[in-house]
Amino acid sequence: MGNVIDIQCPCCSAPLHYNPKIGKMKCEYCDSEFSTKDLKKISDASVTTTSVLENHNEDYVSYNCPDCGAEIIADENTSATFCLYCGNTAILKNKLSGEFAPDKIIPFVKVKEDAILAFKNLSKGRPFMPRSFNSSKNIEKITGLYIPFWLYEVDVSGTVKAEGINVKTWTSGNTHYTKKDFYNLLRTGNMVYHKIPVDGSTRFANDIMNALEPFHFNYLVDYNHAYLSGFLAEKYDVKKEDAFKDAEKRALTSTKDVMLSDMGSYSSKVIKDSSLNAQCVGTQYVLLPVWMVNVKYHGKYYIFAMNGQTGEFIGDIPLDIKRVVVCFVLVFVIVFVLFLFVAFVVHLMTGGGL
Description:
By secondary structure, the chain is of the alpha+beta class. It contains six helices and 17 strands. The protein has helices spanning 40-43, 112-121, 136-140, 206-211, 240-261, 321-349, and strands spanning 4-5, 16-19, 24-27, 33-34, 50-55, 58-64, 71-75, 78-82, 89-92, 104-105, 143-172, 175-199, 221-222, 232-234, 268-297, 300-307, 313-315. The strands form three sheets. Strands 1, 8, 9, 10, 11, 12, 13, 14, 15, 16 and 17 form an eleven-stranded mixed beta sheet that branches.
């Protein structure tokens, strides 16, 4: 059994949504504002029961909206969603309790208008982008989503061996000389990394999430259900033990780079061997804000995503092949006509007849 949290305005009972611009919950009807701390008790108040549905190999959960009674369907990894009828936020409390309860959260700073502007700007300098890509229909699909991340504290210690090469060249008479000096380099040390982020959901490609970094983790706050009001959220489906492999790889790579750069100045340096050990000394489960939309074009999905804190964004933009072909043909025709015209003028100027 699970719980749906419906956050309502204490003054007029209208839906409350988190407003990133003011950092508070705001009622769109009576303009009342509340801090997330003030609404903590309210967010734990309204609950309804759930039932689990089976659809092929995927579990779905149905919830009854506390306001209008409509049925809300969500898959097993969704933590917050919307009622399609009255628009109220449904926070699926059972998805965010126990082992799935986040430790911290970075609330949204960038609002939907910021994401829409960034999405529209994708067309600038891209004449072959399909006109339908940034249509109003796609713009309306841009959604604020809290994505689960693991943050790791990693302790790395060990040794890195490298070869340094200094190259000197000179010329004497007609002879050119090159001298190479080789050096054995060694560094042993210990480094501690704080808050290495790893995406905890298989829904989102790691390269996309990595491209949205950095998030400023000094703005992490204690998790509160109220921050999810007005947004969607996912729970992790990658265990922290499995996700640590990515954090370990990043920590080891960074350690090698730091040790190599500390070995002095040479014409070139190459790592020959390393013996490094990475240990996880701490883990946090957090939710990080992302604005996102998937646009389907010719049977393929193209992703636009924006960091909901910093505004950093990426966009996978398709090419309109028809427009490319038309443009190529048009340019070819223009060039061909100009060539014929120039050839005709040259023919006349050299005394040729009509």
